[in-house]
Design brief:
Length: 146
């Protein structure tokens, strides 16, 4: 049996990207796109996407469901760790030295500044509802009603 690993991974990556785009998240694939998106006024939810199981089974479903809330970020964006490496590095640099570079993870920006984070340690081993609740608590504190 000969399995083409790259072909298999491309299918997973395509699915992971599509899930976020279909939910309304903007893919940031270059440092320039990161700079432009993070410079916008208002609130921006950044999901650092990944191909790992906790991204597919917990983080992406939580992100998709959390945005159906009375308060939500003005912008929804995602960078893909391990795939769009330069964009991910630019995002992590924007987050500052205190940011733990983990994936999957979430960062909430307000007027370009980090106001909240949910790291991998708050995703992996937790159920999606816990992550949804944490995201929505951040929305409640920092976002406007839609």
């Amino acid at each position: 049996m000969n399995m083409d690993y790259d072909l298999f991974m491309q299918e997973i990556i395509t699915t992971a990207r599509s899930e976020m785009e279909n939910a309304g998240f903007e893919q940031l694939r270059t440092p320039e796109e990161v700079e432009k998106a993070f410079s916008r006024p208002g609130t921006t939810l950044v999901m650092i996407n990944s191909v790992c199981g906790c991204a597919g089974g917990i983080a992406r479903p939580a992100a998709i469901h959390a945005i159906h809330y009375d308060k939500r970020p003005d912008y929804l964006v995602t960078v893909f760790a391990g795939q769009d490496k330069e964009a991910t590095a630019a995002a992590r640099a924007w987050f500052g030295e205190d940011h733990l570079p983990s994936s999957p993870s979430f960062v909430l920006l307000k007027d370009g500044k980090v106001v909240a984070e949910i790291g991998r340690h708050e995703i992996e081993g937790h159920d999606p509802m816990t992550v949804i609740t944490n995201l929505q608590a951040n929305f409640e504190e920092y976002c406007e009603e839609v």
